[in-house]
Design brief:
Elements: H1 2-13, E1 16-22, H2 30-39, E2 61-67, H3 84-87, H4 89-97, E3 102-103, E4 107-109, H5 117-132
Length: 157
């Protein structure tokens, strides 16, 4: 369809894909997940042995920026809700990393519906700082096909 072709053309032209959204139920909003499902097409974004470090989006970056209602202390290895990167693994690794994007560590804005205007301004300043330092932002790691044989078994095992 024409709308998907237009989105694919934009995706192919981008250097940095930013997905900005409110975190819903530990995941992406359905409309954003639907966009990924329709636009990340086999043969254009990935396909065959073209995934992870050989994905067809190799050389491009992707970054998640999102808001959520929980407080920062509620997320982490030992926290009530668990680790955000684990929670977001399906999109970080299973979609963006799989497609070959160099995935930047996400930016989370915590407790947004409940904070003061001053705290919102501070969060926007933190986001501005994150944008200005993207070149040094840590990357999310994912496998290299160089470490696997033709059947995707780990080499050396």
């Amino acid at each position: 369809p024409a709308d998907i072709a237009a989105e694919l053309e934009l995706l192919k032209q981008c250097d940095l894909l930013v997905l900005n959204f409110p975190l819903y139920w530990f995941s992406l909003p359905a409309i954003l997940k639907g966009w990924i499902d329709r636009v990340f097409l086999s043969g254009v974004v990935y396909g065959g042995r073209n995934f992870y470090d050989r994905g067809l989006m190799k050389g491009k970056q992707a970054w998640l920026t999102f808001t959520l209602g929980g407080r920062d202390h509620m997320f982490g290895d030992e926290a009530i809700h668990g680790d955000l990167n684990t929670m977001l693994r399906p999109v970080l690794r299973g979609s963006l990393g799989y497609a070959g994007f160099d995935v930047l560590e996400p930016f989370a804005a915590y407790h947004v519906p409940y904070i003061t205007q001053e705290a919102r301004v501070e969060m926007l300043e933190q986001l501005d700082d994150a944008v200005n330092t993207l070149a040094s932002r840590p990357r999310v790691s994912y496998p290299s096909l160089d470490h696997f044989d033709a059947q995707m078994n780990p080499l050396g095992k």
